[in-house]
Amino acid sequence: MSQARELAAFGFELGILKRVRRTGWWHAGVRDPESVAEHSLRAAQLAGLLAAEEGADPARAAYLAIWHDSQETRTGDLPHTARPYLKKPDPERITADQTAGLLGPAGDSVRAAVAEYEAAATPEARCARDADKLEMLFQAVEYRDIGVRQVQEWIDSALKGLTTGTARRVAEVAVELSSLAWRDG
């Protein structure tokens, strides 16, 4: 296949993320949870904000976050309750398969982003990983605000996993806010 065809095919594959639901929320009673694409967009936005506050590169952190769940086009979103029964997918291996036909800078860039995110060794990767957890916390608060009562385990999990000072401070405030606080001025 030509490089243009490979990029187009991968672009179509990425569109699947708009249809893959964040399945763990079904356990809390959410009938129509957000998609992986919706989660990834806000996670990338939050990663950029966290990185700016932490003195890291916002664009790089956002780039890492936008790719962090892209493998779920192949695996679906596996809730944590599946872990005792299924081997955790290897994001780097899946990304290598997804991008095998992307020779050159595009494929290299995606593979490097996923590897950096998984290693969690750079400030940008730590911000991206915190953004993933912080986005889940925000989603839990939003679901709580519309009457979904069984969200505390998601909030607790997010709080426990945050590593940057900015993410911890934001999370502590967010759990006390209404999800409509943004319009209160």
TrEMBL record:
One of its GO terms (cellular component) is cytoplasm. It comes from the Bacteria. InterPro entries: HD/PDEase_dom, HD_domain, YfbR/HDDC2. Gene3D superfamilies: Hypothetical protein af1432 (1.10.3210.10). Keywords: Hydrolase, Metal-binding. The keyword Metal-binding applies. Its cofactor is Co(2+); Mn(2+). The keyword Calcium does not apply. Residues 32-146 form the HD/PDEase domain. GO terms for molecular function: 5'-deoxynucleotidase activity; metal ion binding. Its EC number is 3.1.3.89. Homodimer. This is 5'-deoxynucleotidase. It comes from Amycolatopsis taiwanensis.
